[in-house]
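Format notes (please read before filing issues)

Several people have asked whether sequences and structure tokens are stored in separate files. They are not. Every record keeps both together, in the order shown below: the sequence lines, then the token lines. Line labels are part of the format and must not be stripped during preprocessing.
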Amino acid sequence: MDAARNVLGEELQPCGSEPLTGFYRDGCCNTAPEDLGSHTVCAVATVEFLEHQRRVGNDLSTPLPMYQFPGLQPGDRWCVVAARFLQAHQDGVAPPVVLAATHERAMDVVPLEVLRRYAVDVPSDPSSLL
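Then the structure lines:
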């Protein structure tokens, strides 16, 4: 099986382990057909983003122990649904993005130039950000 790729065309890097993120709770923004939401954008939670998500009906701050979800705090890295990220971008509250840990399938929903605008990591070839 081929390794998952990120939006930079490289091997997908882990997004976060505390809390453990990903559709499969494997720390990576891996995806497959059963991931209907496309949890593919590795975002760094901010107060503004978390408040926005609560307002639009996607409360990421409240713990849900039955789903092994601890609730997010500002600074946590989390694989967010690509459409939710795009909505936050359109509403002016998109969080920072870790490109190396953002799955290439995120680009099915969010244009690469939008993801690059919020990048907090620098790829091995910085010219790819231009």
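For reference, the curators noted about this record: The longest helix spans residues 47-55. The radius of gyration is 14 Å.
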